[in-house]
């Protein structure tokens, strides 16, 4: 069974991706590019809430749709 996405925050740093996806079970996927040279793109890493800065938590909260906002706030432990 696929995990349900409750927030997905997309951002570009120039031509480089910097995307975060929060799942209903609290899992977080960071999909990003380090550079445009071979081997520096489409990197994925799994994170926990404790790995996120306040700025990233806010990006995920802001990106959530209304019905998911409260769950996102709870998972990310936002005030």
Sequence-ordered SSE layout with sheet pairings:
Layout: E1 5-9, E2 12-13, E3 16-23, E4 28-32, E5 43-47, H1 54-63, H2 69-76
Antiparallel strand pairs: 1-3, 2-3, 3-4, 4-5
Helix pairs in contact: 1-2
What does this 3D model show about the protein?
By secondary structure, the chain is of the alpha+beta class. It has one domain (5-76). 23% of the residues lie in helices and 32% in strands. The protein has two helices and five strands. The chain has helices at 54-63, 69-76; strands spanning 5-9, 12-13, 16-23, 28-32, 43-47. Strands 1, 2, 3, 4 and 5 form a five-stranded antiparallel sheet that branches. It is globular and about 40 Å long. The protein starts with a strand and ends with a helix. The mean pLDDT is 96.
What characteristics describe this protein?
alpha+beta, about 80 residues, 2 helices, 5 strands
**Amount of beta strand:** 25-35%
How many angstroms does the end-to-end distance come to?
Answer: 32 Å
Order of helices and strands: EEEEEHH
Alpha-beta content class: alpha+beta
- Overall 3D shape: globular
The number of domains is 1
Radius of gyration: 13 Å
Percent helix: 10-25%
């Amino acid at each position: 069974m696929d995990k349900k996405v409750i927030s997905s925050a997309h951002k570009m740093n120039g031509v480089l991706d910097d995307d975060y996806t929060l799942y209903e079970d609290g899992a977080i996927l960071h999909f990003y590019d380090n550079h445009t040279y071979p081997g520096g793109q489409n990197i994925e890493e799994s994170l926990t809430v404790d790995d996120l800065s306040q700025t990233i938590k806010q990006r995920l909260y802001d990106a959530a749709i209304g019905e998911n906002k409260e769950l996102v706030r709870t998972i990310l432990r936002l005030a």
